[in-house]
Automatic annotation (TrEMBL):
Domain Peptidase M16 N-terminal: 54-101
GO molecular function: metal ion binding
Gene3D superfamilies linked: Metalloenzyme, LuxS/M16 peptidase-like
Pfam families from the UniProt entry: Peptidase_M16
Protein name as it appears in the record: Peptidase M16 N-terminal domain-containing protein
Amino acid sequence: MNLRKKWIHWWAILGLLMGLSVFVSSVFAAPQATTVSESSPQPQRYVLDNGMIVILQELHTAPVVALEVWVKAGSITEGEYSGSGISHYVEHLLFKGTEKRGVGDTGSRKKSGKEIPSKFICP
């Protein structure tokens, strides 16, 4: 086979594969997202005995459960005691060390590729 026929052969195979991939992706495509209608139940608010607020909204458009937890804690909620609460204590543990971790351990963990999530680092 000469070079021109080989190229035509490969382009034909490539075209066939691309057409097949479009067909397969359309057959197995995810269903279109449904929008929350006006008749959807409104969120319900509950206050637990320990003061925690729970907001619940049921949407039966997909067979999944999603959960988010928000906590009113951290330096922003310390008010006039800013710098003397738990967030300041955790900051000292992270950056000034503990009995098991020295002052430079946090930095060496970062350099070694082990990430420290930003949610554990106080502003």
